[in-house]
Protein: IMS import disulfide relay-system CHCH-CHCH-like Cx9C domain-containing protein
Organism: Penicillium subrubescens
Amino acid sequence: MPNRTRPIEKVAKATAKCSTEAAAYGKCVLADYDSVHKDMCVKEFMRLKDCFVE
């Protein structure tokens, strides 16, 4: 059986690699968490998404 990476391992590696982007996104959401709305932190989210996709 070939050596396969489990999906959770991929998520863990991406999370570790993208900690700066994740922190920026989290900080943006927490800045006004009482009135979170769609696309509120789209710039930060897209940076995090791009990092995960790499």
The chain has a mean pLDDT of 88. Residues 25 and 44 are 5 Å apart (CA to CA). Residues 19-53 form one domain. DSSP finds three helices and no strands in the chain.
